[in-house]
């Protein structure tokens, strides 16, 4: 195992990152230290999805109020570095306030998020907190320049604000939220949990229990804010040692208050357990489950995905058809494939409409009002798809479109990074794989039927090279999501693989 690098200066970290091989992706996990299992889940996600991982450890003075716990917040850099090294992190960045340009609060340039996002939830009780968070996170993002930055969903208001500032400041980074990690009791991991006495820790478990009661009512069809909040309040009233600071139902992205959950709601709470303030939340989504299927070429993803969609009456999201539609548009526009700027302009303003196949009608796809369902299947378009899909602007456009289509759920999609990037919150993630020998044999049998004379050895070599290219792409590389179920299809029929996926889906539904 390579020894972890510790950098305390911006110059040192930038020199280190600048010396990395070109094309390598960088993941950033910003923390304030006192690392625990929740941080470990963020780090593992970053390690699984990027080539180099930097963990920042910085207790940010700008986000603490005058009567808060800045002075006693746990600082344990040596053990935190060991924690990161054991997980396989490449570098830790632990600067001083002065190194990040914080001389005094009055003399520091600040990033100020929208007032509407700061004047709710924690922001009501922690004035200046989210300005401090936004300022330091912006400094970290512009210093490290990661491809992806990972944040925990426990700090849901922080996550929403950071996503907004990245959009508003046009920062070239993807922000990924990661699920809350909990102790076996249900208590969300937090660096402040170490403040709790044994008695207080036992009391704190009722916070999540109360949220779960509301979540269960939501699953049974309850959508009204007043009823959902009342369920939590009535449960916590049975535990007078817990002092609720706030309890609210808001939109997870805008943080606007909700009276009724129509697509998604964030049920968030802050509670004092003794002198320790804890936050927690649950996301309430009005959507059917999503199945994300990833895997290498030749593993049978396309065929299996179509069969799963049909068997479960889900929408088959044909992402390949969408890339073909963009390739068709570029070819008709006369724009050079080398002119990425012109393609980005063209794609940004394109309007795509996707009508999934039904029992009586095939897939229909149109772009800028023109039906191209047949035109995208021509050899000319096929020849362009690979080069077009490798362009960042095309990818960004279509991932955003696919995510919009997924808001209501009830779909299954396959690709290289469906579970890691397109639908990272999919209820079921499958990584479909098979040995090189098995995949080569399947292709060889197909070629035999077509009269092609390629040998097994040639096919195995081709597949190995394709696997390498797909897993080493700078854009959308093949990755297995850390929470994906791997299914090796060696020796299995298409029906057997389909049945396995349906079995896992039904387990999720019943849960």
UniProtKB/TrEMBL annotation:
<dbReference type="GO" id="GO:0004592">
    <property type="term" value="F:pantoate-beta-alanine ligase activity"/>
</dbReference>
<dbReference type="InterPro" id="IPR027417">
    <property type="entry name" value="P-loop_NTPase"/>
</dbReference>
<keyword id="KW-0511">Multifunctional enzyme</keyword>
<feature type="region of interest" description="Cytidylate kinase">
    <location>
        <begin position="283"/>
        <end position="511"/>
    </location>
</feature>
<dbReference type="Pfam" id="PF02224">
    <property type="entry name" value="Cytidylate_kin"/>
</dbReference>
<comment type="function">
    <text>Catalyzes the transfer of a phosphate group from ATP to either CMP or dCMP to form CDP or dCDP and ADP, respectively.</text>
</comment>
<feature type="region of interest" description="Pantoate--beta-alanine ligase">
    <location>
        <begin position="1"/>
        <end position="282"/>
    </location>
</feature>
<dbReference type="InterPro" id="IPR011994">
    <property type="entry name" value="Cytidylate_kinase_dom"/>
</dbReference>
<keyword id="KW-0963">Cytoplasm</keyword>
<dbReference type="InterPro" id="IPR024894">
    <property type="entry name" value="Pantoate_ligase/cytidylate_kin"/>
</dbReference>
<dbReference type="GO" id="GO:0005829">
    <property type="term" value="C:cytosol"/>
</dbReference>
<feature type="binding site">
    <location>
        <position position="181"/>
    </location>
    <ligand>
        <name>ATP</name>
    </ligand>
</feature>
<feature type="binding site">
    <location>
        <position position="63"/>
    </location>
    <ligand>
        <name>(R)-pantoate</name>
    </ligand>
</feature>
<keyword id="KW-0436">Ligase</keyword>
<dbReference type="GO" id="GO:0006220">
    <property type="term" value="P:pyrimidine nucleotide metabolic process"/>
</dbReference>
<dbReference type="GO" id="GO:0015940">
    <property type="term" value="P:pantothenate biosynthetic process"/>
</dbReference>
<dbReference type="InterPro" id="IPR003136">
    <property type="entry name" value="Cytidylate_kin"/>
</dbReference>
<feature type="binding site">
    <location>
        <position position="63"/>
    </location>
    <ligand>
        <name>beta-alanine</name>
    </ligand>
</feature>
<keyword id="KW-0067">ATP-binding</keyword>
<keyword id="KW-0566">Pantothenate biosynthesis</keyword>
<feature type="domain" description="Cytidylate kinase">
    <location>
        <begin position="291"/>
        <end position="505"/>
    </location>
</feature>
<keyword id="KW-0418">Kinase</keyword>
<comment type="similarity">
    <text>In the N-terminal section; belongs to the pantothenate synthetase family.</text>
</comment>
<keyword id="KW-0547">Nucleotide-binding</keyword>
<dbReference type="GO" id="GO:0036430">
    <property type="term" value="F:CMP kinase activity"/>
</dbReference>
<dbReference type="GO" id="GO:0036431">
    <property type="term" value="F:dCMP kinase activity"/>
</dbReference>
<dbReference type="InterPro" id="IPR014729">
    <property type="entry name" value="Rossmann-like_a/b/a_fold"/>
</dbReference>
<dbReference type="GO" id="GO:0015949">
    <property type="term" value="P:nucleobase-containing small molecule interconversion"/>
</dbReference>
<dbReference type="InterPro" id="IPR003721">
    <property type="entry name" value="Pantoate_ligase"/>
</dbReference>
<feature type="binding site">
    <location>
        <begin position="152"/>
        <end position="155"/>
    </location>
    <ligand>
        <name>ATP</name>
    </ligand>
</feature>
<comment type="function">
    <text>Catalyzes the condensation of pantoate with beta-alanine in an ATP-dependent reaction via a pantoyl-adenylate intermediate.</text>
</comment>
<comment type="pathway">
    <text>Cofactor biosynthesis; (R)-pantothenate biosynthesis; (R)-pantothenate from (R)-pantoate and beta-alanine: step 1/1.</text>
</comment>
<feature type="binding site">
    <location>
        <position position="158"/>
    </location>
    <ligand>
        <name>(R)-pantoate</name>
    </ligand>
</feature>
<keyword id="KW-0808">Transferase</keyword>
<comment type="similarity">
    <text>Belongs to the cytidylate kinase family. Type 1 subfamily.</text>
</comment>
<dbReference type="InterPro" id="IPR042176">
    <property type="entry name" value="Pantoate_ligase_C"/>
</dbReference>
<feature type="active site" description="Proton donor">
    <location>
        <position position="39"/>
    </location>
</feature>
<protein>
    <recommendedName>
        <fullName>Bifunctional pantoate ligase/cytidylate kinase</fullName>
        <ecNumber>6.3.2.1</ecNumber>
        <ecNumber>2.7.4.25</ecNumber>
    </recommendedName>
</protein>
<dbReference type="Pfam" id="PF02569">
    <property type="entry name" value="Pantoate_ligase"/>
</dbReference>
<feature type="binding site">
    <location>
        <begin position="189"/>
        <end position="192"/>
    </location>
    <ligand>
        <name>ATP</name>
    </ligand>
</feature>
<feature type="binding site">
    <location>
        <begin position="32"/>
        <end position="39"/>
    </location>
    <ligand>
        <name>ATP</name>
    </ligand>
</feature>
<dbReference type="GO" id="GO:0005524">
    <property type="term" value="F:ATP binding"/>
</dbReference>
């Amino acid at each position: 195992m390579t020894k972890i690098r510790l950098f305390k200066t911006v110059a040192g970290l930038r020199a280190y990152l600048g010396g990395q091989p070109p094309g390598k992706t960088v993941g950033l996990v910003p923390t304030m230290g006192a690392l625990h299992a929740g941080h470990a889940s963020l780090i593992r996600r970053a390690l699984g999805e990027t080539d180099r991982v930097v963990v920042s450890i910085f207790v940010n003075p700008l986000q603490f109020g005058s009567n808060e716990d800045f002075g006693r917040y746990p600082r344990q850099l040596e053990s935190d570095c060991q924690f990161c090294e054991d997980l396989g992190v490449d570098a830790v960045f632990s600067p001083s306030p002065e190194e990040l340009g914080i001389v005094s609060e009055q003399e520091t340039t600040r990033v100020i998020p929208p007032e509407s996002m700061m004047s709710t939830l924690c922001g009501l009780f922690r004035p200046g907190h989210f300005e401090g968070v936004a300022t330091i996170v912006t400094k970290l993002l512009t210093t490290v320049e990661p491809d992806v930055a990972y944040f925990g969903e426990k700090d849901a208001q922080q996550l929403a604000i950071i996503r907004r500032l990245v959009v508003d400041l046009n920062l070239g980074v993807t922000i990924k939220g990661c699920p809350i990690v909990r102790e076996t009791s249900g208590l969300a991991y937090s660096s402040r949990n170490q403040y709790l006495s044994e008695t207080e820790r036992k009391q704190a478990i009722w916070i999540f229990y109360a949220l779960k009661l509301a979540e269960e009512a939501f699953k049974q069809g309850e959508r009204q804010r007043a009823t959902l909040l009342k369920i939590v309040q009535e449960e916590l009233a049975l535990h007078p040692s817990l002092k609720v600071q706030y309890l609210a139902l808001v939109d997870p992205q805008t943080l606007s208050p909700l009276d009724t959950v129509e697509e998604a709601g964030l049920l968030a709470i802050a509670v004092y357990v003794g002198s320790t303030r804890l936050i927690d939340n649950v996301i309430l989504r009005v959507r059917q489950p999503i199945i994300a299927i990833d895997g290498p070429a030749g593993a049978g993803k396309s065929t299996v995905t179509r069969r799963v969609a049909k068997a479960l009456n889900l929408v088959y999201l044909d992402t390949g058809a969408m890339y073909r539609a963009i390739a068709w548009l570029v070819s008709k526009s006369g724009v050079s494939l080398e002119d990425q700027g012109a393609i980005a302009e063209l794609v940004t303003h394109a309007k795509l409409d996707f009508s999934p196949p039904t029992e009586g009608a095939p897939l229909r796809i149109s772009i800028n009002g023109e039906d191209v369902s047949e035109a995208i299947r021509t050899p000319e378009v096929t020849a362009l798809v690979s080069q077009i899909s490798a362009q960042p602007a095309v990818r960004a456009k279509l991932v955003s479109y696919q995510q919009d289509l997924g808001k209501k759920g009830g779909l299954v999609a396959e690709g290289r990074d469906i579970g890691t990037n397109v639908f990272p919150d999919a209820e079921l993630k499958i990584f479909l794989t098979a040995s090189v020998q098995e995949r080569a044999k399947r292709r060889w049998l197909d070629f035999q039927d077509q009269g092609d004379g390629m040998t097994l050895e040639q096919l195995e070599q081709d597949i190995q090279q394709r696997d390498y290219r797909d897993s080493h792409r700078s854009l959308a590389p093949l990755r297995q999501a850390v929470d994906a179920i791997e299914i090796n299809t060696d020796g299995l029929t298409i029906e057997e693989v389909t049945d396995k996926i349906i079995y896992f889906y039904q387990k999720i539904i019943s849960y």
